[in-house]
Design goal:
By secondary structure, the protein is an alpha/beta fold. It is built from 10 helices and 16 strands. Helix 4 packs across helix 10.
């Protein structure tokens, strides 16, 4: 089976490249991926693979084995939304849509999942069980109510009839060499919350600040006070990040005081109880500083995705299967990240494993990080990614 998967991954490699390049040239933002969904559906239809639309712009393909399909079930998942970035690369497959780019590699994820799905379908007579192949929208953007594409997929039945015993996903990583993967057990990526704060003032002439309330220095004090949460309230061994990434004034003149300052930031954590406690600290600081300066500070915390937990027994099985498929020298350990991934939603509901697919090639200058306007991949990684996904699915059904 392993050799057959390798052969098919090699046989379909050029098609995987063509799929990835088509998607890269035609990126769509979160929850707008209608053309992408149609393209995925078209490919599955060409290959005769049963599938259906889920979560409006997502797709679910179920590969049921010819022999004993109800024995067990597992799932593999990819995402296919792009980022609002204007690409600066000059490859022939550069994005054709200004201000939109697959700068997080979701085009590669989808290409790998499509080819893995095709491989599993062609080999369905040689294993027992069912594989749910999820093509998910909306990973990059958390809605104001905390909903992401992962939750929409779950709500629309992507993990039911049958319910998988586990789910696996891969994500490209430009710091890991092409041909290798990296993974860790346990807490792998952080929770993500968005902080939105408005400091209200009265505006006025900058030469007469005593006649009103200038919100700018108040916002500066608040920004500094918030940093004390991480440095003085948090246990130093407990990972967290609280960053105010934007401070915006409604004044654009040198002699006009602002009437309003807006702060935008993010909170990352690995402990749900502490995460809630940080929310209380933020709210209390806003209230206290507002009272001290006799003004109003509005604070809104949009609760996003939870932290991503790699199930220990499943991760061990994935690691051993990956070593079997790639060789021990190509399966690397890696540290946790403070970035977030909505695959975490699956990990909070069932055994899940999320690993990194290497796409780095220094000789070819493919080294740019995720979410940058020059991000690209060594496309040889598609062969590794497609074959390994199929092999992991089959191995999990044994």
């Amino acid at each position: 089976m392993k050799d057959k998967i390798r052969e098919l991954a090699a046989q379909y490699f050029e098609e995987a490249v063509a799929i990835r390049r088509h998607l890269h040239m035609h990126p769509e933002l979160s929850y707008e991926e209608y053309e992408t969904q149609a393209f995925i559906s078209q490919k599955l239809t060409e290959w005769g693979i049963p599938h259906r639309t889920v979560a409006k712009t997502g797709v679910l393909a179920q590969i049921r084995s010819d022999n004993n399909p109800d024995k067990a079930a597992t799932a593999i998942r990819s995402d296919h939304d792009a980022l609002p970035i204007d690409e600066k690369n000059n490859q022939p497959y550069k994005s054709t849509r200004p201000g939109k780019q697959h700068a997080c590699g979701h085009d590669a994820h989808t290409a790998c999942n499509l080819l893995a799905t095709r491989i599993l379908y062609e080999l369905r007579s040689e294993f027992e069980g069912t594989v749910n192949c999820l093509f998910q929208p909306g990973e990059e953007y958390v809605k104001s109510d905390g909903t992401t594409g992962a939750q929409l997929m779950i709500d629309d039945g992507a993990l039911s009839n049958p319910t998988p015993r586990s789910i696996v996903a891969q994500h490209v990583n430009p710091s890991v060499p092409c041909g290798k993967i990296a993974l860790k057990s346990g807490k792998t990526m952080a929770s993500v919350d968005t902080i939105k704060i408005k400091v209200c003032g009265t505006g006025g002439h900058a030469a007469s600040p005593h006649l009103g309330t200038d919100p700018l220095p108040i916002a500066g004090l608040l920004q500094q006070a918030l940093q004390l949460i991480a440095s003085r309230y948090n246990n130093p061994v407990n990972p967290m990040v609280l960053s105010i990434s934007s401070i915006h004034s409604d004044s654009t003149a040198f002699n006009v005081l602002s009437s309003e300052i807006n702060l935008l930031g993010t909170l990352r954590a690995y402990n749900e109880n502490w995460r809630k406690e940080v929310h209380r600290h933020i709210t209390r600081m806003c209230q206290g500083i507002a009272a001290a300066f006799d003004t109003r500070i509005d604070c809104r915390i949009e609760v996003g995705i939870p932290f991503l937990q790699n199930d220990a027994p499943l991760t061990e099985r994935v690691q051993q299967a990956a070593i079997d498929y790639l060789g021990a020298e190509n399966v690397l350990p890696i540290d946790a990240y403070m970035t977030g991934e909505d695959f975490a939603v699956y990990s909070q509901q069932m055994p899940a494993c999320f690993y990194w697919l290497g796409v780095r090639n220094e000789d070819r200058g493919i080294t740019s990080g995720l979410h940058t306007d020059t991000m690209d991949i060594d496309e040889n990684a598609l062969k590794t990614g497609a074959g390994l996904l199929a092999w992991l699915a089959v191995s999990e059904l044994d």
